[in-house]
Amino acid sequence: MERLERIWLSIWDRFATARKLQWALLALALWLLIALGLGIWWSVEPDRFNVAEHARLQQASGDEPVTGSYTVSTLIALGDTLLDKPGGYLSNDRLPPGIWLDNMPAWEFGVLVQMRDMGRSLRKSMSRSQSQSTEDPALAKAEPLLHFNNNSWILPSTEGEYRKALRLLQDYADRLTDADQSNAQFYARADNLRDWLGDVSTRLGSLSQRLSASVGQRRVNTDLAGETGARQSTQAEDEVEVKTPWLEIDDVFYEARGTTWALLHLLEAVEHDFGEALDRKGARASLRQIIRELESTQSTLWSPMVLNGTEFGFLANHSLVMASYISRANAAIIDLRDLLAQG
Asked: 110-158 pLDDT, tens per residue?
């Protein structure tokens, strides 16, 4: 009798253990399914927003936005989108599903680079009447905060530092719109716009090269081309092999998507703020053409992954398509800078 009881208890223990294992596996499968759904949702790129509407929200009185309001309010809106989109800021996530995602953090970095460049331009030139004038105190604090480490998880967190920068930018925006204060200014001059566009052109040129390198190329070294007396630190080969690592191709692609998404909004903002300067130079149409070129970079990607076919191969190469749009926009920016430099 005792032997039968022991056998029965052994069978029951095994059954109970199997049931616990089944429940554990079921819970794990459910958790993975939820994480997958969240990962897909968090990976959806934010829609474009209305630049003019955000600028009007800065005007408490309901009047037309003052000079500079479009650019500053757009910069703040870019930061808000970066931090408050579905899933929040993902570049510094240390837990699933955020830690598994790499496309959205690459997109975030592209947006962040454009925010940093505009923040530096605001502090360096757009808010100052001349090189010897004092810089705005809020912008002087906000600009280095935007350059804080983009993947710091805690002590301090990246989100916390960026929110401080956005509050300082909001302080500058509030003083811009306050007729009783004259200590905050925005100078919509052609030379200021040209300087910022120089930074934009440099960024787009680099992105275009990195995107084109998805298929690998041997290129002639042109580092010292154009000046016979130019020198560099170490000797380089006459030809160089350039190829983006396979695992980084999608990261470069989504960084380009984030860069152009942010740049579209900033260009729309500067069209409003620098409208008179553009019209004096006959350059408004050129700016609108740049915007039109960049809009193509935001077309829906129907493929579940970034394809990397050869130049004329059977499969598409999404990186080369993106590089084409960016190169055309960059060429138009170079022409626009020439127009702005003319008397």
From this structure: 999 999 999 999 999 999 987 778 899 999 999 999 999 999 988 899 9
Which amino acid is present at 238?
D
- Counted residue by residue, the chain has a size of 343
**How many whole angstroms separate alpha carbon 286 and alpha carbon 331?**
11
Question: What's the angle, vertex CA 274, arms to CA 273 and CA 278, rounded to 5?
Answer: 150
Q: How far apart are CA 211 and CA 248, in angstroms?
A: 10
Instruction: Determine contact, residues 109/150, Cβ cutoff 8 Å.
Output: yes
Tokens of 63: 């009047």
Please list, in sequence order, all residues whose beta carbon lies within 8 angstroms of the beta carbon of residue 105, skipping any fewer than 6 positions away: 90, 91, 151
The structure's pTM equals: 0.88
Which tokens go with 199?
A: 């930074």
Q: DSSP secondary structure string, 213-224?
A: TTS-EEEE--TT
pLDDT in tens, 86-102: 999 999 988 888 788 88
Residues paired with 242 in a beta bridge: 217
Task: Phi first, then psi: give them for residue 317, nearest 5 degrees.
Answer: -125, 100
3-state class (DSSP) for residue 83 = helix
